[in-house]
């Protein structure tokens, strides 16, 4: 039997007033954190915003009563209880912290379907009830940012079901997914099935997917940790899970926090950056998986070096030998030395265009957003470059997941664990077909 409880996080805040707030509230979004991974990354995101965000920058993510525009849901209480203890002054609504007492066994089907009993409200029903109330608080609901993983049962299964339910209930709103793929060497025996099914659902119901791979995040977090803590006696500093979550949250802030170049004279964001990302990078519904990289520096801004440091890690060729290409690329620049970037802007964008191999048939493949302060490091002269690209290397991950899931499926391995919760062969076959179509589109990206 599934027993669902609600956990709460209290805090004090003052309501906001004024014309700027009213205009921004009309385009308000909802932040939805699902599972352990989604809630941990969300926690790092809110910490950055709480510590560093300006009054104007907070508008998009806080309601009129100063409550955070977020719903946190997990099938186990430990992560959300930890968030309650660590976040001091921010305010979550009681009804928006939803937890269960039983995990989902790293099983997509269990996370998607929930408990087999009808004696308690499911996590899905409770989440959608809180979601409806959040929508009704807004003058105009514009969309959802979903944080979750591909691996765990809650993040992959419940996350997929929430995408489907939100799309069916609120079809006019955008859905931007931020999802984390497991390590290639393996985290659980079911990760390939979970990733297969979740990726297929994201392709069907989301408008854009910010895809982070744990192996890539680990390498980038290790580089940052090594720079902060040089090796001692040839031993590299350990990279913690929090270091990885902080890096992902930093990339999200680099992309989603309001920028000066998209603001009105009254400093109000006119585009709500999550939806501008979708419009900029996902013009074709068949290709919506986005790769993100970021470089932060202090001191004098040497933009050529920053750009070279970032482009060195771009995948060039697929395992099959196909050259990678980009449909579109966005560079988000945050610097207190904004004039220095404007001098180098053409050079930087040309380097990025060449490194990401933008397709020649897109007349405007490169886009650039600029902000005059760096929220990621506001205490000193600092600058950051966050690049998000609709890059065909996403097909490498999707193809690998599909092949490994196919090998397990052909051997009929673990299928009884999924059938137990209503997942049938048709669901797997449909997922294989969906991802085959995505891989095919990306493989032919540079040939169009």
The largest β sheet comes out as: 11 strands, mixed
Name the helicity range.
Answer: 40-55%
CATH class of the largest domain equals Alpha Beta
H/I helix tally: 16
Instruction: Report the CATH architecture of the largest domain.
Output: 3-Layer(aba) Sandwich
Looking at how many chains there are and whether they match, the oligomeric state comes to single chain
**SSE sequence, one letter per element:** EHEHHEHEHHEHEHEHHHEHEHEEHHH
SS-derived structural category = alpha/beta
Roughly how many Å is the radius of gyration?
Answer: 21 Å
Estimate the global geometry from the Cα principal axes: globular
CATH topology of the largest domain: Rossmann fold
The percent range for strand residues is 15-25%
Strand neighbour order, sheet with most strands: 1-4-3-2-5-6-7-8-11-9-10
Supply the number of structural domains: 3
Please tell me about this protein's structure.
By secondary structure, the protein is of the alpha/beta class. The chain has three domains: 4-8 and 21-281, Tubulin/FtsZ, GTPase domain (Rossmann fold, 3-Layer(aba) Sandwich); 290-393, Tubulin/FtsZ, C-terminal domain (60s Ribosomal Protein L30, Chain: A, 2-Layer Sandwich); 396-447. 44% of the residues lie in helices and 17% in strands. It has 16 helices and eleven strands. It has helices at 19-25, 35-52, 55-58, 78-86, 108-113, 123-136, 153-169, 191-205, 214-228, 241-256, 273-281, 303-311, 338-355, 394-410, 415-419, 425-443; strands at 4-6, 29-34, 70-74, 97-100, 143-149, 174-181, 208-213, 289-298, 326-335, 366-371, 382-391. The chain has an eleven-stranded mixed sheet, with helices on both faces. Residues 1-27 and 231-235 have low confidence and may be disordered.
